[in-house]
Amino acid sequence: MYSRLVASDPTWNGRFFTGVKTTGIYCLPSCRARKPKAENVRFFPTCEAARAAGFRACRKCHPDDFARGADPLLETVEALVAEVRARPAAFADAGAVVRRSGFGTTRCFELFRQHYHTTPADLLLRARVEAARRLLAGGDAPLAAVAADAGFESLSVFHEHFRAHNGLTPADYRRLRQPGPFTLALPPAYPLAHLLRFLGRDPNSLTERLHGLTYECTSLLAGAPAVVTIEFTAEAARVSFEGAEPFAPAQAHAAHRLAVNLVGLEQDAAAFARLAHRLGLGRLVAGRAGLRLVQAPSVLDGLLWSIIGQQINFAFACVLKRRLVEHVGTPLSGGLHLLPTPEALARLEPADLRPWQYSRKKAEYVIGAARQIVAGTLDLAALPGLSATRAERTLLAVRGLGPWSVNYVMMRALGFADCVPLGDTGVTSGLQTALHLEERPDVDATRRLMAVFSPHRSLATAHLWQVNKPLL
């Protein structure tokens, strides 16, 4: 228990509480307060036991709130974020967000980083961009009016930020309501070779494939099955899709979101590269400073992969996923298949997956998660809009999802910026090579070593996955 306290391990929260005799305070194991000496610590099974022994609750980690399932501090931050997202124009700048929070600047930034993996300024900017997308998708107001209604200070600032986050100008985004392909502008010096290596990692996949510079994947676009095609050049990505008729603008907007996530336009690769250089680890980003973390085509895809890929090698995980898609997925044009729906998976029994070489536990986890989705107790559509803290707690409650799986889903399917799939062999071997360690770090050492990359640990993970691969 003391080792879990020293490691600030959140997975042990609620399993015991720690009392510090020198301060008279009791905490959660994950509390970030200064760590006490072992001889000054007492352990308690409940908050009531700690209070009965004369200890009082920590005001930093709020153990009583955790014990009763409440988290007023998190709820306060979530309410503020909901307000910013609903009315971004009501906040002139990040300072206005901080003032509205009621916290000091340092504390507010700390809470945003902890619960949303971002800063007030960046969250406000993203809220403005999202508001502009809604306005452009649903109306014909002049661009100057859209910019003002979304909270941008000028039309030029609006164009700059909108294009950086979407790969399209506002006018081009509005034209998505018309049938036809569209082209995303890639950032300067985009490391396309690394993206293509990732997209082609399973040449036998039934849900996606790469031929030269052309990538295809299957997806549900606004509920309609479709094959999305992306043709890459060094500077751009031309996107088209073939799906159900008639054309619906919502399908084009969904295809755009898929493509933006795939190439990582909203990830701050430049900020991570600057951080790596400040840490004296420029070698970690050498030759791939603009690397992004490739997002899964859907949350369901990321969730299934996190379960299937647990504790087995990549090649066998690909085989298992292919067999599931082949038997339960929906065939589409060109030999590709749509990922199995939660409803189709929920109708299976674990014994049905055993002939496809699924272990009993893995089969139970896949089917169990699908049944939770169908029952409505696991809402995949809501996950991307939650705080990172709430999303993590939601996923950890799913049977079969541990810290590695949850962080994998949060990085690759939900787009959170500060996650580490603890126990991942690619991360630990990358750390060993990049930091010239004598041996691969264990989970606790990985947590400590990765802390310096916060709030960009997801991008750090993407770079560490590349460290021991051949240079491109």
Secondary-structure topology with pairs:
Elements: H1 2-6, E1 17-20, E2 25-27, E3 41-44, H2 47-52, E4 56-57, H3 63-67, H4 72-86, H5 94-101, H6 105-116, H7 120-138, H8 143-150, H9 155-166, H10 170-174, E5 182-185, H11 192-199, E6 208-211, E7 214-221, E8 224-232, E9 236-243, H12 249-263, H13 269-278, H14 299-308, H15 314-328, E10 330-331, E11 337-338, H16 342-346, H17 350-353, H18 360-375, H19 388-396, H20 403-412, H21 425-434, H22 443-450, H23 457-467
Parallel strand pairs: 2-4
Antiparallel strand pairs: 1-2, 1-3, 5-9, 6-7, 7-8, 8-9, 10-11
Helix pairs in contact: 4-7, 5-7, 7-8, 7-9, 14-20, 19-20, 21-23
What do you see in this structure?
This protein has 472 residues and is α+β, with helices and mostly antiparallel strands. The chain has four domains: 2-67, DNA Methylphosphotriester Repair Domain (3-Layer(aba) Sandwich), CATH 3.40.10.10; 75-177, Arc Repressor Mutant, subunit A; 179-266, DNA-3-methyladenine glycosylase AlkA, N-terminal domain (TATA-Binding Protein, 2-Layer Sandwich), CATH 3.30.310.20; 299-467, Endonuclease III, domain 1. The protein is built from 23 helices and eleven strands. The strands form three sheets. Strands 5-9-8-7-6 form a five-stranded antiparallel sheet. A four-stranded mixed sheet has the order 3-1-2-4. A hairpin with a 4-residue loop joins β1 and β2 (25-27). The longest helix has 19 residues, at 120-138. The model has no long low-confidence stretch (mean pLDDT 94).
